[in-house]
UniProtKB/TrEMBL annotation:
<dbReference type="InterPro" id="IPR020846">
    <property type="entry name" value="MFS_dom"/>
</dbReference>
<dbReference type="Pfam" id="PF05977">
    <property type="entry name" value="MFS_3"/>
</dbReference>
<feature type="domain" description="Major facilitator superfamily (MFS) profile">
    <location>
        <begin position="64"/>
        <end position="449"/>
    </location>
</feature>
<feature type="transmembrane region" description="Helical">
    <location>
        <begin position="395"/>
        <end position="418"/>
    </location>
</feature>
<keyword id="KW-0812">Transmembrane</keyword>
<feature type="transmembrane region" description="Helical">
    <location>
        <begin position="338"/>
        <end position="355"/>
    </location>
</feature>
<protein>
    <submittedName>
        <fullName>Major facilitator superfamily MFS_1</fullName>
    </submittedName>
</protein>
<feature type="transmembrane region" description="Helical">
    <location>
        <begin position="304"/>
        <end position="326"/>
    </location>
</feature>
<keyword id="KW-1133">Transmembrane helix</keyword>
<keyword id="KW-0472">Membrane</keyword>
<dbReference type="InterPro" id="IPR036259">
    <property type="entry name" value="MFS_trans_sf"/>
</dbReference>
<feature type="transmembrane region" description="Helical">
    <location>
        <begin position="274"/>
        <end position="298"/>
    </location>
</feature>
<feature type="transmembrane region" description="Helical">
    <location>
        <begin position="155"/>
        <end position="172"/>
    </location>
</feature>
<feature type="transmembrane region" description="Helical">
    <location>
        <begin position="424"/>
        <end position="446"/>
    </location>
</feature>
<keyword id="KW-1003">Cell membrane</keyword>
<feature type="transmembrane region" description="Helical">
    <location>
        <begin position="361"/>
        <end position="383"/>
    </location>
</feature>
<keyword id="KW-0813">Transport</keyword>
Length: 475
């Protein structure tokens, strides 16, 4: 069982700016089924007090989540190895950055097209069984890719086909994985578990690209694919040994007409879902295909080869790891801070495009990774906590559809810009559009919430802050 929260903690609703309140709708009588649906989808409470440092990773005190986190960590290292090896292999086989972007598109296109159906399945069936099935199929695909690479029979079209099938697996895997975290820890430690998952992912993202760079230089891409096949099998084993009696399993949602439409209507009706959803769209299309641009910088700008490509990705992951750890210290979830982090990520990418040297470029990549993860964890937490378990699978599938599926559009576009225009221009577009979108959204939210920026040089602790213009002035 999960330990109780610290006695000093207080339970409250998610802290949402006044700017995020939904516009008033005409009062209409509600049918019983609508009232029942609204009761089912009320926000969950969160712990809003800052935890002591010893509780930074308190969700790992839950035995099932600890087992899951170990398996997830191993899997993340291996999937990063496969991702880096796959992109570099396509670049070497084709000589085209656009081809790398097309590979990304094939892997993420199914989530863009079929994502909501994956969420519906996650709501209707056992999440653990879905994950076991998906990881088993992923192991077979990785083993096939390894066999083709190690025998020298690999061609670009092989990578395309396997990337597409893996994308179909992701349609089911990602919504189930997001919701399964709640079944592991329950609502008390959900926010912390999301941050721990992000920390695990980024620590794996720090190790995986570095290992991939070593393997690509020493023995080739095939062994990176083989490692991922073994890791997928280990994930299946971890899922099988979980204590089912300690899972917080919710009753599956029965099949009904209009389930997908209901999930979409619900997501659009909550500002704490649709604003992060909108920003995730800009980040996904323009800034989440960063490895494609880094491949161009490693090969055409800095000429540092496969090892340098792995290093650049590792530097991004290093900053992201710091961001994931920092996110566990967040006391409150604020919509405006999520938008701010998205804008800072875009700004860092623009700054990197102007970097005069490899060292400066690498340093800015660390900062960009930090702000990227601050946005992703805050956005994920806000969306999950704003939706109840009865509809969360569909809500998260829509979020994932935007976050992952958008890369199917952005990957080829940025790859084409990097190849036919210039890698620096591709990076400017990658960061400039999300940064501009964050400014516009921030202005809209500020106007809706009567917020303004106040500068007070006499206040040493908070010389610059956002205040509510309608609040009475303090004496």
């Amino acid at each position: 069982m999960a330990p109780p929260p610290p006695s000093s903690a207080t339970v409250s609703q998610p802290v949402i700016d006044s700017a995020s309140s939904a516009p008033a709708l005409p009062s209409t009588p509600q049918a019983p089924d609508v009232r029942k649906r609204d009761a089912l989808t009320q926000p969950l409470p969160v712990v809003a007090e800052r935890l002591p440092w010893k509780h930074t990773f308190i969700s790992l005190s839950v035995p099932n989540f600890r087992i899951f986190a170990v398996g997830h960590f191993i899997a993340v290292i291996a999937i990063w190895m496969q991702r880096i090896a796959q992109d570099w292999l396509v670049l070497q086989l084709s000589g085209s950055v656009t081809a790398v972007g097309f590979t990304v598109a094939l892997q993420f296109l199914p989530s863009l097209v079929l994502g909501p159906w994956g969420g519906m399945i996650a709501d209707r069936f056992a999440k653990r069984k879905i994950l076991i099935l998906c990881q088993g199929v992923a192991a077979v695909l990785a083993a096939l890719l390894a066999t083709l690479a190690l025998t020298g029979a690999i061609a670009v079209w092989h990578v395309y086909v396997i990337a597409l099938v893996l994308g179909l697996v992701t349609v089911l895997d990602q919504p189930a994985r997001q919701v399964f975290v709640n079944e592991l820890v329950g609502p008390t430690h959900l926010r912390n578990a999301i941050s721990v998952n992000s920390t695990t992912f980024q620590l794996g993202g720090l190790i995986g690209p570095a290992l991939a760079g070593l393997l690509l230089t020493a023995v080739g891409a095939g062994w990176a694919f083989a490692a991922n096949a073994v890791a997928c099998c280990s994930t299946v084993a971890m899922l099988l040994i979980l204590r089912k009696d300690q899972l917080h399993v919710s009753a599956p949602t029965p099949k009904s007409k209009g389930m997908l439409r209901e999930g979409l209507r619900y997501a659009l009706g909550k500002p704490t879902i649709y604003w992060p959803w909108l920003m995730a769209g800009f980040i996904s299309v323009f800034a989440m295909s960063l490895p494609v641009i880094l491949a161009a910088f490693a090969d055409h700008v800095f000429r540092v080869g496969a090892g340098g490509y792995g290093l650049l990705n590792a530097l991004v992951a290093l900053g992201a790891l710091a961001g994931a750890i920092a996110s566990t210290r967040r006391r409150q979830l604020r919509l405006r801070s999520v938008v701010f982090c998205a804008g800072m990520y875009g700004a860092m990418l623009c700054l990197a495009a102007l970097a005069p040297s490899l060292a400066t470029f690498g340093a800015v990549m660390v900062l960009s990774g930090f702000w990227c993860l601050m946005f992703l964890t805050g956005s994920n937490q806000l969306v999950q906590i704003s939706s109840n378990m009865g509809i969360r699978g569909r809500v998260m599938s829509l979020y994932i559809m935007v976050l992952i599926g958008g890369q199917a559009l952005g990957g080829p576009m940025l790859g084409w810009i990097a190849e036919h225009a210039d890698p620096h221009m591709a990076l400017l577009v990658s960061g400039g559009v999300p940064a501009a979108a964050a400014v516009v959204v921030g202005i809209v939210l500020a106007r809706k919430g009567a917020l303004t920026l106040k500068v007070d040089v006499r206040d040493r602790r908070r010389p610059i802050r956002i205040v509510d213009r309608t609040a009475p002035a303090s004496s």
